[in-house]
Structure formats: structure tokens, C-alpha cells
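Hey,
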Amino acid sequence: MTSKLPLVIILGATGSGKTKLSLELARKFGGQIISADSMQIYKGLDIITAKATVEERQMAPHHLIDELHPSQSCSVVDFRNRALSIIDNLFAKNILPIVVGGTNYYIESLLWRILVEEPGAWIEQNSPFETSQLSNSELHKLLLEQDPDRANKLHPNDRRKVLRYRVSNNIGWSSVVCKLGPGDQIRHFWYLYYPCLKSVISSELLQHLFA
């Protein structure tokens, strides 16, 4: 897809202030907001996901919030297909799309097709380790030695995630993703990472909890 407008991406932890920034950008540039949070697409769960309030959603159009019942599934491919359709429509109307979220893989799926359609093969090829000869259980055992908490949450047969976290723990996932260069689905994008102190995030979440 091509557009003179960029895709604006705001990434950060829950409670870091992404919603406030996205609303300011939407107001200033007439944009619309697309949630890239794997939980905000579900109805309910408002507090734990720091979902934009009803009042905030009235300040600018929002997409992919409160669309599914918690019993429904939504894979990264489902999200990508929904989001790209919305982005295409906004670009066609010359409206700035602002993607906001904390689910990195969802955001990556919008930019690089290969990370969704052939993720295992691509990660294997770009990993700093020789892994092609290792079985799933052997690879999982290596992660277990390195990061037992993470490994215990993953099934040994989930090779893509096991390898991804092993790479992340050693050289950082960003070091691998940067090899991809510009997005092969959306090439023109602005990526805004919104860092925030843990103490500030904790305070913000407590305010949501007791509001």
C-alpha cells in the first residue's frame, strides 16, 4: 500500500501514556486511532488493559476496541487483516492512521509480512545461533537453562516463540528486526516508543483501578 501519509505507531507499556499522546496527535492532525493491543479488542477488561475510556473515544474515532466477546479467538493474522483493511481505508480518505499498542508482534505483523507468514524460517536464518539441527525439545531445553520463567510458559513445540525469546535474551529482538529494513507491507511509518518509569506506570494503573 502506498500513501503520502505515514503510518504513526505508538508503542509502550500499559499505563505509560500512549492513549493521551495518540489523542493529541489525532486532534492536531485529524487522525484516527487503531488499537494494537491483543486484549483491548475484547469487550470488558477495561481496567487491566488501561483501555481508552468512553469519553476519550468520543474525542477521536477508535478502531479494534470492544469488537469481540472474550470467548472468541483473535490470532495475529486476524488482527493484521482487520487492521490493514482499516489502514487502507483511512489512507484512501487521506486520514492519518495512528496505531497504538503494547503487543509488539501485532505491530510487527503490520509492517513485515514475512514475520507472520514465514516467521520460523526467517528467525532460523537470522539467528546468531546454529539451530537448524536442534529438535524442538533440545531448543526448549536451552531456553530453560537461560530463562526458566519464560521457558516454562512455552510449549516445546512452539519453536517460533522459543527461538524468538532465546534470540531476544542474547542480542535483543530489535537487533534482529532491524535487518528487515523498511516494511514490506507499509514502508512509510513513524515509530514512537513511549518509555516511562515503572513508578509512574504503577501510579497510573492504581488510578484506573480505583477511579
